[in-house]
């Protein structure tokens, strides 16, 4: 099975590129993040025309997650148990955002994840981000405790650069989100729970994101923040992984590149 995860930064704006990518790379399952549309606005028919089943969760022009699959799509969940919500005013209802969607595809429980950005280290969104990751980690650990042979993939835009090698200039990120120690500890906690990030071993020293500003892409000033974190049983099935840097090029590109994982 060929799986991919991609922060598409607007499914409607990039639908032609997304469908062309699916065909060019012969992708069986694609997890998308930042679709930026409500469910009724998502271009599902473009995927069904290609033989994919579709699950999407979006409630506004922000966030949004999806999974499309041509190998089956069952048991869709639009949030993980215990997923925290957010509102900048703590006195208001903390709304669960469209940041996680789970679906079972050919026996693999795929979660498309758009981890909160955090914004600034002193912003409530940063606390929300750490809580969000902690709650997801607790659930993920529980899934392994229930079934050590579980086939689980936590894939998407994690908005964390786990090591200094994952950013073009560590000094530039001092005092900023994505590289702070609490965020890195939150990411590493998934490995402590038994999960394995499966793309790095096959794609060393490669970035997945380049900001649109300051000519970051041609200057090779990127970040590695998109990952596939797998249960041990699923990690053992991984035969290859790659980052399709070509999809960051040209007119109308997302600021992220797709990450591809091959399962035997």
Question: In angstroms, what separates the terminal alpha carbons?
Answer: 7 Å
State the strand order across the main sheet: 3-4-2-1-12-11
Elements, N to C (H/E): EHEHEEEEEHEHEEHEE
The tally of strands reads 12
The amount of beta strand, in percent, is 15-25%
Structural class: alpha+beta
Shape, please? globular
Task: Characterize the biggest β-sheet.
Answer: 6 strands, mixed
Low-pLDDT stretches are none
Query: Percent of residues in helical segments?
Result: 10-25%
Give the number of helices: 5
Chain-averaged pLDDT: 97
* Global Rg: 17 Å
Q: Any overview of this molecule?
A:
This protein has a 6-stranded mixed β-sheet. Helix content is 21%, strand content 23%. The protein has 5 helices and 12 strands. By secondary structure, it is α+β, with helices and mostly antiparallel strands. It has helices spanning 15-25, 44-48, 124-146, 181-192, 232-235, and strands at residues 2-7, 29-33, 53-57, 65-69, 74-77, 100-105, 108-114, 152-157, 196-197, 226-230, 238-243, 259-263. Helix 3 (124-146) runs parallel beside helix 4. Helix 1 (15-25) links the parallel strand 1 and strand 2 (29-33).
Quick overview of this protein structure:
This protein is an alpha+beta fold and 264 residues long. It has helices at residues 15-25, 44-48, 124-146, 181-192, 232-235, and strands at residues 2-7, 29-33, 53-57, 65-69, 74-77, 100-105, 108-114, 152-157, 196-197, 226-230, 238-243, 259-263. Strand 3 and strand 4 form a beta hairpin.
